[in-house]
Amino acid sequence: MEGLRQRLVEFAAARRWEPYHTPKNLAAALSVEAGELLEIFQWLTPEQAAAVMTDPERAHRVRDEVADVLAYLVQFCTAVGVDPLEALAAKIERNERRFPVPGEGADVNPNKG
Hints:
Layout: H1 2-14, H2 23-41, H3 46-50, H4 56-80, H5 84-98
């Protein structure tokens, strides 16, 4: 992950894009790219969506949009000083406490109540 992060930093620096890579701009770009990923699945039935990766053209688009989303997320994390892997691990731990495994004294419907 660090190697890819560094490549993105160097890529932007070589093109003098740093002034534009503000947290706001990167968050907006991340949102746009996530929307482009969603667009691939818009109006598909659940069955069609599950089979998207069997179509080479759509699979290529999915991979490209996933790469764009990840690139902007990594760049955003760099801009704000967040380690995305540490943030994810901490979030999983919080969710494990918040949503215990059913049968361990927890209600399986977190929206109930």
